Amino acid sequence: MSANRAMESLLALSQQEELVDLPKDYPLSASEDEGDSDGERKHQKLLEAVSSLGGKNRRKLAERSESSLKVSEFSVSSEGSGEKLVLADLLEPVKTSSSLATVKKQLNRVKSKKTVELPLNKEEVEQIHREVVFNKTSQVLSKWDPIVLKNRQAEHLVFPLEKEQPAFAPIEHVLSGWKARTLLEQEIFSLFHKNKQPVTDPLLTPVEKASLKAMSLEEGKMRRAELQRARALQSYYEARARRQKKIKSKKYHRVMKKAKAKQALKEFEQLRKVNPTTGLEELEKTEKARMMERMSLKHQNSGKWAKSKAIMAKYDLEARQAMQEQLAKNKELMQKLQVASESVEEEGGTEVEELVPDAVNEAQMNADGPNPWMLRSCTSDAKEAEIQEDPEQLPEPLAHNVSESEGDERLVAEEEILLKEFEERRSLRKRSQLNQDAESVGNQETKDSISQEVLFELRTLSQKLKENHQSSKQKASSVGTVPHIQREELALEEEDEPLLLQRPERVQTLEELEELEKEECFQIPRPMLKGHRLKKNPNNQTDAPKKKKKEQMIDLQNLLTTKSPSVKSLAVPTTIEELEDEAERDQKQMIKEAFAGDDVIRDFLKEKREAVEESKPQDMDLTLPGWGEWGGAGLKPSAKKRRRFLIKAHESPPRKDKNLPNAIINEKRDIYAAAHQVRVLPHPFTHHRQFERTIQTPVGSTWNTQRAFQKLTTPKIVTKAGHIIKPIKAEDVGCWSSSRSDLSVLQRNPERLSARHKKQPKKNSID
Amino acid sequence: MKVKMLSRNPDNYVRETKLDLQRVPRNYDPTLHPFEVPREYVRALNATKLERVFAKPFLASLDGHRDGVNCLAKHPKSLATVLSGACDGEQWKMDAPAYGEEEEPLHTILGKTVYTGIDHHWKEAVFATCGQQVDIWDEQRTSPICSMTWGFDSISSVKFNPIETFLLGSCASDRNIVLYDMRQSTPLKKVILDMRTNTICWNPMEAFIFTAANEDYNLYTFDMCALDTPVMVHMDHVSAVLDVDYSPTGKEFVSASFDKSIRIFPVDKSRSREVYHTK
């Protein structure tokens, strides 16, 4: 339709242009003074005339085949055809001709435009607007809910609600109309003036002002927080130091010292790289320390301990060894420090140290080790490791191209590990027996897990399990297994976390185990280590199935103990159910026997029937025997008369329990009972005892102390005389929260309302 | 020979200052004070009776008008001032105990329609009138800032919400109560009751609660966010309720009725607490 209109308008436009081109002498004004219908016809004629005017340069019109009443070049109508006119149909002939390009373009433009929807009528718009605004307003109002609720539930309210500020005038106002008169006052004021204390307007001294300017409140707060934090840290540090100082273990202190030395060395190395001059100074310092050590008689066999050992050395092998050790140390210390050799040499040294067993190492190091500190620590470490026989302490698998710094770092790490071990041991000692047991298991577990093969096995196992799991997810039994294994492992690891800390890499999940496995490819397998392990725990070498069994056993236990509702229902079922059934049957039997005689249901039905009969309105019989006929003993009023004076009762409204076979609803309120019933109950009423207590406790001052009496009789609302109570203000109340729910529950309880007010007008709200 | 002295701590019986109450030692043993409930009952009864006897609800009458007093308003910032308007066109300002003086208008506005009610904004210099529509006026201008309407019947009264001051409530003679938002200049909600509402009054402590004085002898307290059912229906009047006003505490309100009585209702009770009537 719109397309049609557009077409028309377009055509009309082109027609106008043609009209403009018309010669002046053509009778144009002919149609002006005639009627409308006549005018239209004339207009048509005119148009035809115009079209015929063009002559040669006008294209000949194609014949039209439409069955329309009006056929015109300028307007298209689909009147006759009875079909709707579609723009596409009109465009088809145009496409072929090239001269109508502009029209085509315009038409296309018309086609592309979409019709704008009709605007809503005014009422609808207003309604929508109203709804939106109402929602907003109710949101605004909802912020009052908590306050209103609070005020409603408050035991006592004192109005006016807003706390009145004590009306103190600022000192400036007080001082403005005041003069120092007495001597004392004058003196005081002079003092004020001398000290540049402000007397009148700004109450701050210049110093105070400056301080205010210097630091804003927030800045100050931040600074304060910082200081606090620093203090706290310091105190922690002090406490820690104190604690550490208390530790009596000599070994611990030795290790600590070593660690410090290591740290110093490391720093020195760094310094040497970064800043050679300061590095040199450092070196001098260490040199000096070494010299001091040399000068001291610490490792000569002159100490108390050494003397005692010397006595014992004859008989005791260990004592002899210890003495020899000390002597070795002494020698080592007495050796003069050589200037730091080249890095290549060092690297070689370290490599050798790391590749070759400890005993060889020691000798070599003693010979040309550049660094006595490092040396000592290395050897002692190794020794300690041997003494402890901890597989964890063994040196790491090494890549061949380890740089010197890396080596250092590892050494430091070892130190740290030692320290940790100490800490842990101390804690272990404190722990209870139970825990220790658990840990021993955990320890075993960790030992197991560290050996790569076992890891590998574990991994494969888990993979298998996973596959199983994926294949049969429906099976209840298999569902538990994999997660359980994981959980188990996690739990174990959590248990012995301190132990695990000793290990260089912590294995936390199966994924990590897998990663470890990948790493394994790059590492050189070490037969020695393997052998060691073999010796140590041959059980571990026993292969996968056993391990798996173990895991699975744990799993099963878990399943049984922790969460197995389904299993329970499957496993326990028959016997227990039977038992229950029996019990129930017994119970039923008992009850049946006990109440064999009475038929409760029939009784109830009878009762109900009676109630129904009773509630039925009775016919009124107004016949008077003997009135208008013979009366006396044995004579009954005639049936006609009875019929005449019988007033039939109206049909009563249907009973409410008509459709409730199991209930009797008594609609008669017993006024005699109502007289004795309680009308008002204490508000949050939960138990009848509550009410009884309120009835029994006296309120008067005769039975209560004064304070209790006052408390009991405080009025709910207190208003102050002479104060205007202003409407509540948001500023007075302060806090907002937007939850309307609680109040709405409390307040709009339609049942309560309707129950209380049966006589309610019909209302309907419109938005 | 040892003599036992009877001694008492003076703290137990001596007052700290002269202004303190005398200390009366008292034994609260319940066996010494039997019949608590009956005694208390008698006391309470006596107290109630005496309260009735000595109650003086009528404080004073304020004279001066020569015609019926048609409207009355409290002064928002002065406790002792009451403003009243009479049918003879006089406006009086009264100081409660004494007689009042006549006030001269500062400013006169002539409108096109009849104004049947007026209320002033609680904070700003804006007031609202009602008649054919609700108009919001600035005090300094002679034409309304905006006018709002919903329906065609004449509106009998308009009231500003004292807390959320942009809200207005009005009641029209086509039995409905309409709420407006002044900021958006649009009506919000409409409640249609069985009979005409004469006035409404907003609770000064609970922003969304208002009470409507209805012709069907009842008062209805509504929550404006849930207008489907009234929060409470207050019954006791035996004729059309003409006016209602809240106490500043928002816990009670007073209503005036065509049955020549004034009743005081607690907000959460459906029955009146007190009734005052003339002959």
From TrEMBL, chain A:
Coiled-coil annotated spans: 320-347
Record's keyword terms, sorted: Coiled coil, Nucleus, Phosphoprotein
Biased composition (Basic residues): 755-767
GO cellular component terms, A-Z: small-subunit processome
UniProt-listed GO biological process terms: rRNA processing
Record region (Disordered): 22-68, 530-550, 747-767
InterPro entries according to UniProt: SSU_processome_Utp14
Main localization, broad class: nucleus
Chain segments annotated as transmembrane: none
Subcellular location: Nucleus, Nucleolus
Protein origin, superkingdom: Eukaryota
Family: Belongs to the UTP14 family.
Protein name as it appears in the record: U3 small nucleolar RNA-associated protein 14 homolog A
TrEMBL record, chain B:
Record keywords, A-Z: WD repeat
Record protein name field: DDB1 and CUL4 associated factor 13
Stored InterPro entries: WD40/YVTN_repeat-like_dom_sf, WD40_repeat_dom_sf, WD40_rpt, WD_repeat_DCAF13/WDSOF1
WD repeats: 234-275
Residue ranges crossing the lipid bilayer per the database entry: none
GO cellular component: small-subunit processome
GO biological process, one term: maturation of SSU-rRNA from tricistronic rRNA transcript (SSU-rRNA, 5.8S rRNA, LSU-rRNA)
Gene3D superfamilies: YVTN repeat-like/Quinoprotein amine dehydrogenase
Keyword Magnesium assigned: no
Organism listed in the record: Prolemur simus
PROSITE patterns in the cross-refs: WD_REPEATS_2
Domain of life of the native organism: Eukaryota
